[in-house]
Structure formats: structure tokens, C-alpha cells
Amino acid sequence: MGSGTELSEMAEKKKTLSRKVVAENRRARFDFDIGEVFEAGIALSGTEVKSLRDGKATVGESYVSAKSGEAILYNSFIPEYLQANRFNHEPRRPRKLLLHMREIAKLWQAVEREGMTVVPLRIFFNEQGRAKVEIAIARGRQAHDKRQALKEKDWARDKQRVMRDRG
């Protein structure tokens, strides 16, 4: 049996493990109007997981597509793990996303019918230590929509500043 300090250390370790964001696509929220968000598992090799734990991945220019009823993440960059030798992975290989069939159907109905896009927002480790990808159904913004979004964001920031100074 463990002592009380061991249990509190384990609880603390679990808190730090929850939702460790590895890579984030901050540009997606600017370029797209984000709709429904899904959390998907990702099929990785061992060296990819180790490289993700180092926190050196990018999903800025990646996208999700369907191939024979499966969701695939393309162009995401997970660098090679330096300590691995000949068993290393290819940095930009297509990676299968693990979703339920009805979720995949919902994604591709939105893409086919409504002209939406499926965009990865971030890669993170959940509470159990499993790598997950947060993907969203999104609609592309025009240049004038982007300018309007910036104006609204600036106004909200100024409004917060004024309210904080007054009260």
C-alpha cells in the first residue's frame, strides 16, 4: 500500500497530464468560422508519440480528408525522434484519425453538401495520456470577414480595458 504522500504525488501528476497541448493551429480561428468540434484519436507509431511528448509538432498547414470511409490527417509535421535509429517515422506521413462511422459521415456530409472544410485545431494528450486531435467543421472566411473579426476582437479588448479601469 502507498503512503499518503505517494497518493498526493500521483494526483498532482495526473493534474499536470490533463490536456497537455502539443501543437495548436491558431491561424484556423482567424481564417475560418469554426462550427462543430470533434475530438479524434490518432493512429501513431512509437517514435511519433515520443516526438509528440517533446512538443515539437505543427498542424498549421495540415488538413483532414476522407479516403474509403476513413478520416486521414495530411501534412501534419511530427519531427523524427532523435534517439530512434532505423525505426524512425516519416515526418509528414498521412495519419489515420479514429472516429465513429457516424461522426465521419457527419463530417463528409457537411463537406459535400455545404462546402465546409474539416480543419485540425490542435493535437494534445488527454487525461489518460493518449494523443488526440481536435478537428472542426469550418467555413472559410473572405478578406472582409477577417477584417470585421479583427475589429470585433479589438473592440472587445478595449471594452474590457475600459470596464476594468472604471470599476
UniProtKB/TrEMBL annotation:
Region of interest (Disordered), residue spans: 148-167
PROSITE patterns associated with the record: SSRP
Subcellular location: Cytoplasm
InterPro entries membership: SmpB, SsrA-bd_prot, SsrA-bd_prot_CS
TM spans (from-to): none
Claim: Transmembrane is one of the keywords in the record: no
Domain of life: Bacteria
Statement: the UniProt record of this protein carries the keyword RNA-binding: yes
Record's GO cellular component terms: cytosol
GO BP annotations listed: trans-translation; trans-translation-dependent protein tagging
Job of this protein: Required for rescue of stalled ribosomes mediated by trans-translation. Binds to transfer-messenger RNA (tmRNA), required for stable association of tmRNA with ribosomes. tmRNA and SmpB together mimic tRNA shape, replacing the anticodon stem-loop with SmpB. tmRNA is encoded by the ssrA gene; the 2 termini fold to resemble tRNA(Ala) and it encodes a 'tag peptide', a short internal open reading frame. During trans-translation Ala-aminoacylated tmRNA acts like a tRNA, entering the A-site of stalled ribosomes, displacing the stalled mRNA.
UniProt similarity note: Belongs to the SmpB family.
Protein name stated in the entry: SsrA-binding protein
